[in-house]
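ok here's ATP-dependent helicase/nuclease subunit A, seq below lol
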Amino acid sequence: MGAKWTTQQKEAIDARGSDILVSAAAGSGKTAVLVERIIQRITAEEDPLDIDRLLVVTFTKAAAAEMSQRIGAAITKKLEEKPDDVHLQNQLTYLSRADIKTIHAFCLQVIREYYDRLDIDPAVKTADPAEIALLQKDVLGELFETLYEAEDEGFLRLLETYGENTGDQRLKDLILQVYKFSQGYPDPENLLRKMAEQFYMADGDTIDQCAWMPLIGEGITNGVEYAFYTLQKAYDRICGNGEFTAYGERLEAELEGVKALRQALEHPSYADWHQAYVAVDFARMPAYRGQEKDTAEWVKNLRNEAKASIGKLGETYFCYGAETQTKLISSLYPIAKALSETVIRFAEAFAQAKKEKLWLDFNDYEHFALQILTEPGSTKDNIIPTDAAKQMQQKYDEIMIDEYQDSNVVQEMLLTAVSGAYDGNNNRFMVGDVKQSIYRFRLAMPQLFNEKYRTYPVEKGGKTRKIILSKNFRSRKNVLDGINFIFRQTMSEAFGDVDYNDEAALYAGADFPDFDGLCGGENEMMLLDLSSEETEEQLTDLEELDKRQMEATMIAGKIREMMKAGYQVYDRGLESYRPMEYRDVAVLVRSIRSWGTTLDDIFGKEGIPYYAETAEGYFDVPEIDTVLNFLRLIDNPYQDIPLLSVLHSPLYGISADALTEIRLFGGDGLFYECVLRYLAEGAEEEILEKLERFQADLQDWREMAKELSLCELLRYLYQQTGYYDYAGMTPGGSLRQANLRLLLEKAETYENNSGKGLFHFIRFVEDMKTAETESSAAKLQSEADDLVRVMTIHKSKGLEFPVVFVADLGKQFNEADTRAAVITHQEWGYGMDYMDLDHRASYRTLSKTALAEAIKLENLSEEMRVLYVALTRAKEKLILTGTVRNLQRSVEKWAETADSVEELLPVFRLRRGRSYLDWIMPALLRHPQVRVLPEPWEPTDRGEARQFLDEPSKWKFTFLEKGDIYGAEQEKQELAEEQQNVFENWDTKPDYSGRKEEIFRILSWKYDHETATMLPTKVSISEIKRRYQAEISGEEAQVPQELQIPQFGQKKEGLTAAEIGTAMHTVMEAADLRKAYDADALEELLTELQQQGRLTEEEKAAIRRKELLTFFSSDLAKRMQKADEIHKEQPFAMLVEPKEVFLDDIYQNMEEFIQINGIIDCYFVEENAVVLMDYKSDRLWQEDAFREKYKIQLRLYKEALERVTDLPVKACYIYAFAPGKMIPMNFD
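and the structure came out like this:
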């Protein structure tokens, strides 16, 4: 596009002196316009601005970084033209401090500059979302305990209403849900109280006075209008046809009843509505014995739709009379009040907890900034700026807001406060596209954009103005024509919040040179009919595929077909066409959940490289879940699910049949017990070999876990198991390895934040998963990687791809948020059911019904905008795909919606759509090329008059059956078997290349110093000890049998011996060894350690106090108190020859060195010599057992100390807590 701006773009760049709303359609170059406007402002001939006089707010950090980069490049280019321009040189300098940032970054800046106006410590930090979620959980738990103890009547009633029989988690979830909702508004506390007060009914009030009456009337009207529409349509079809006289009379009577209900709705009286509703009568239709049975059936189906619509009103809005409805609303008042007050108390407690920890979260950013910038009493329509806001107003000459359609009311108030609006200096420049407002779940309010769009004039000269950018510089004309064709028929102000007229339509502005090869082409719709039956032969040879797998197979086949056919895309960097690559293709889906494993199966089998950001939480992605299962087994192997997962993983490859055999052999009990039994008595060599390898690995891991930090243990697991390398070999391997590296970072962060030990890290992960606050998986390293991108439509916003598949269009919309026990709405407050606690009966109230209907319609409008975002990502080729259960019935349903004389399809029918296909296909059925539909699903004559015979967009329709998918899969399987047979029977004797001997010589080469390759460069003391014990005994050391069975499999609770030993070690590490501890002093130390978080309450209780006191009163302790120096937890690393630590013959003549590392518990210096002490909590009682087990460890400690201190070690002792003995060690 360069500098060739359209008239509208030029106006957006040059307009000054007013609040400007730029409605920028998809691909219209809004970012380029915004950057050019900034450049023009800072390089103007007269009064140029400094770039730090502008506030530019973007939606994401990436957008802010991109904008800064573009501005920097533009300034640099200007400097090349004017190298001596001081002002331009300054702008390049100022760019790094320019306020081009996200709204959250701006809020944090405000807080830092004016923190003294808040009751917070300036040292606060932004907490990780996972930390915030865990803190919320803790605070909520403490609040509930307080409310239980106080026996708060409102809370207990709330618990009975919304709790469950076995606990209070459902109510806790509800509190957090309402809290999160309230945080999106300027004054959460006031909002919550107002929401509760809506249920208050004064004496004499009726349901007509309730706050939801307008919404109730609207919901009823929607149902009534749909019934009237379908009845009128049926009546018009048979009117004047003598064969249907009886039908006509019946329909006339029903139409009169519906008309009477319509008239009643014109006046706000629920009692009158109810009376009119009861009068509507759908009697039995008379029998039809004529010849036009198809018409009769069609009329009856329409009439049944009307009857169902009226019937649903009876189940929802008219299930009770006015008096009962009034009573239900009034009865909910104490419940709503208790809910709001509980949420408010939680908010206060949570705020205090954050304050104590010096934490902020993202909600704090906006609310603290709002507190700084606006006076109390400010509203969206009446901002009263504070002195701080007025100071910031002087700082900025213009406020530029990108993606304005996604702003919420808090952000609107913040940016208005720092603009010049209060003094009549209109200086806001707002850019967005309401058709792309898809963040309602983040409380975005497209109404803010729409309100300005409706009221701002196009004409210049006033204090406000709107500019419309409708030219698309991204896509081919046929793609845009196809998008316009669909949305002119489906999107309206009533459904989508946008009237898709000529202003909203897309117009081609991109130039694609002519090309003789295969490029561009028709838009495509590919539908898979799931009703067809596959042959018995196909099912015999192939596993049954689910619908996603079949759709993925269809997509993979299309990608392969395009690659094979040599499809070309235009590369603007090369300024020429080139063959399509995988990176040119994107597959967009509404929800990525379940698609990850599907694509692994299908795309992996097809050899199509792809990248998909998983929908699962980070800790649930397969590679991370596997490593976590390693850790769970190291902590405790008596856990069936982690154990089965690891044994079945590629590392050990034990099949499902083999696992079943192990279970049957072992009998009842936990699976690890079955494994041990099979190791002792099993017969199958292959299974035994794998189990023995697993058992040896497990023992090794558990030993290493005692010596290594969590991060080091993970690195060891990656290397020792080869799992990191394996992950890199699988489809999407680079991303899987990135996830594994990210786990190392998370483990290191956990330990740096005072996290302690493997056991607690696993519990930390489980808590985060329970709180549903897991962080995102690792990101793709390079956009240049040749991979098909698979992503959600939301993730694709702002991106573009040459070839786009919009998939899973048959997926039904998610309506879960309208079925919750309590629903919330930004305007209408709570929607709640009433629970009669005496009879344990639930009553649906008008507040719940009306809000559910309103939320459903708003969700559907957003889904329409989500679909628009998806379709507008395509540059050259748009392919829509989906599955339907029964194509014939689906087409008949779509044809009813398509059968309209108006260009806009009936909103009443669109609102009843269950999937994107229910909107797209009725529109496409009116396209001239739809005649390729296979028999017997041709559209009837009723739709002929409404087809757009002069429609410019070109579409190709492909309809597949399950047999087509299975047939293709069968052909591929047969080809693979044929290829495998060829290789299995390959004659290896002939010299095909003429270089057979040379190849075999190269492949059989052996390294001269091969034994050295088996030598580890670094080894821990624990590993040396384990190898030493195995070597001197001549067999592998067995796993210590001190393993804890999980709570669900044990009768008594408590810590394992290893955990108690770790706790004892913690006490010795913290103790002042120059101090003589008695029982009181020891207890004081333990309490202090618990308060510091170094001991849990359970660990403190498990400390063997008697054994510790025995040590502190021992001769060795008294000797230490008099020592010249005492050192604890002394880390060391030293180089030794292999023969010093390993007994195997292969190590005896090696000249290389290995590094050993470890941590010495304690040593002290007396009389210029060192005394070494290592304390052990093993439940051993014989001194020789200690000496034999720890001889090699203490000998190496002694050698390390002598090297480090340059002093002789005159004595080495083990202090054994169990027998209470000091055991001298002799290395002669």
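fwiw The chain has six domains: 7-124+359-469, 129-184+330-357, 207-319, 523-533+542-611+788-960, 617-771, 1018-1038+1112-1225. kinda neat tbh
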